[in-house]
Every structure is written in structure tokens, then in C-alpha cells.
Amino acid sequence: MKKIYTLILCFLICIVTACEEMEYDHVLIVVTNEGVDRPEFSDAATLKGAILDVGNLKVTNYGFCYSISAPGLNLTLETPNVKNILAGQGASAEVGEFERKIYGLEKQETYAYRAYAKTDSEVKYGKQYTFNVGDITTPVFSAQVNNISKTTATALGSVSENQLAAVGGAIQEHGHCWSAEPTPEITDPKTILGALTAAQGFTSNISGLAAGTTYYVRAYIIPTGSTTPIYSNNEVEIKTVQ
């Protein structure tokens, strides 16, 4: 009889242990921070969240889903659309806080957002919150060009404190671009002057121009965390010396 009790006790212990391990294997806790960091008049905002526990699971992607809010909106990854945008961070096996800066917000709109973490078998979400976007001011800065010769020119530009604040306080790349056609873009010849974290003027030495040719020049900046350039509000037309 004692042997039977011992066997039953061992069996129960195995069941309890297996249940505890099974439950822990599937623990995945994600939270969304309420409130976003958004400079006044900016079209960008920083969302924050955290993964508190991953158990024994492998997180294949995590980040935020966000959208212009609508009545009854429930953001998910399974029903993506043009208004349900994913700001993914990639894979992670660690717990901790994370954040993601998003761009291209529309003025006078309310956005819904929540954090998520995805494994091979499930997606877990944090609580959904909303934030309001008021007026948005596009940074206004101008370009100038002087010292024009047969093959070179000097281009000037500047970024003010207000302009810097409007793009979140940091610029990862700036410079000038030019082309023989109007409205040059960064896919055309350009200078790359690096990052900016303070308001200042900047100068580009343009070379490789053809003599007696008309060119169009614009300054540009790319905010940190973005791939979309912002161009100067004016375009300078120059003609090199014959």
C-alpha cells in the first residue's frame, strides 16, 4: 500500500511540474506606455512600450501598430491595411523597454497605437491608447549659391532651432543636391554633410559641373530615424561660367 501511495504522489508531482513548465513556456507579456513624446508642430512621435517576460518563447518581431483612430478600432497584425501601420523592431530574446519613432502623422487627427510581440505561434498586444495631433509645421529653410565658376560652386543652407525641433531635434544627414533639371532630389548628385543635433548653417562645395550649363540646387535634411528627405522651400537656379 505504501508503494502505491508513493507512486501516486510521484505521478501527481510530475503532472504539476509539467503544467507549470507548459504554462511558463507560453508566458509573453507586452505593455504599452500611455502617452507619446511629440515635439510641438512636428509630424513625428515616439511610441514606448516594454516586453516584461518571454518565457521560453522566441520573439520573431516586436514593435507597435498604429492607425488613425476610428470608432470600435481594434488594432491587430492579422488585418493590416494602409491605416494600420506596423513599426516593427525585428527579433528579440530579451525583456526590457523599447521605443520607436514614427513619421508622417496627419494634422488634426487622433491616432490609436499599441505595442505587440510576435512569436511563431501567437501575437500578444499591450493595451491600446490614443494621442492627438494638432497643427503641423513643415520646417522652412532656404538654399543659397555663390562663388560660381566653370565647374564648381558654393552652396549654403541653415537649420534654425524651430526647424530642428519640428523634426524631433536631430538630423541624421544634410547637404545639397543639384541637377540640370528642375527639382533635384537626393538621387541626383549631392553632398553628404552628416548629422546635426544643433541649429547651425552649413556649406557644400559643389564640383564636377559642366561649363556654361544651367543647374538647379536645393538643400535637404533627413530627420534621424527617417528615410524621407525634407527639401528647402526654394530652389536656386545657377549657370556656370562659359
From TrEMBL:
Signal sequence extent: 1-18
UniProt entry keywords in alphabetical sequence: Signal
Highest rank taxon of the organism: Bacteria
Name of the protein: DUF4493 domain-containing protein
